[in-house]
Design goal:
The protein has 193 residues and is mainly alpha-helical. The chain has two domains: 3-122, no CATH class; 148-183. The chain has four helices and no strands. Helix 1 (7-32) packs antiparallel against helix 2.
Length: 193
């Protein structure tokens, strides 16, 4: 790795640019205020900035994105460019299934997020203006249903008592019929003993 691409060089470059810009601004401020240091700081700051611009022009732009690793040949003019995940290109060997897996995973996560956003949008568009009235109506319905169930339970208990009373009445009527039949037999003189 060359010195121009090292972290130390990037830090030093940013430090020189920042300090040079600060000196120029302070020198310009002092010059505007007619402070005697303005005559010293402004030329120093301007010289520093001129050196920085010259230096940046000489070293060339820094490449931050390395797309040619995924698309071999991208950094060459008139190259056949195809993503490694599609099996095209050539150049450096990159683990194509791993790239495809990562991209596929990202795609599925984006689809899930899209569905979630659609659901949220549908929820946002829903009209809840009559919901309170509907909840109140449902509450009334459930209370009436509970009353009907309680009444039905009472009716079932009443029917059970009625059944037991009818059973008792049938038993008593059977006994009375037996007594009446015995009385009729006793009163009949043509009875053969």
């Amino acid at each position: 790795m060359s010195f121009l691409h090292s972290k130390g060089f990037k830090y030093l470059k940013n430090l020189i640019i920042g300090v040079g810009a600060a000196v120029v601004l302070i020198g310009a401020l002092f010059k505007i205020m007619h402070h005697p240091l303005g005559n010293v700081l402004l030329p120093i700051g301007m010289g520093t900035e001129a050196f920085i611009f010259f230096f940046l022009g000489v070293i060339g732009p820094e490449k931050d994105y390395y797309w040619e690793k995924l698309y071999p040949g991208l950094d060459k003019y008139n190259a056949d460019v195809a993503p490694l995940a599609a099996g095209g290109g050539g150049g450096q060997a990159l683990n194509a299934p791993a790239v495809e897996e990562k991209l596929g995973g990202m795609l599925s996560e984006l689809q899930i997020m899209s569905k979630s956003m659609s659901s949220l949008k549908a929820l946002q568009d829903a009209d809840f203006t009559g919901t309170a009235d509907q909840i109140k109506t449902m509450g009334n319905f459930y209370s009436k249903l509970n009353e009907a169930m309680a009444s039905l339970a009472d009716s079932a208990e009443d029917a059970k008592q009625y059944k037991e009373q009818m059973k008792s009445l049938n038993h008593n009527l059977g006994s009375l019929n037996s007594v009446y039949g015995n009385m009729l037999n006793a009163m009949n003189p043509n009875r053969q003993a």
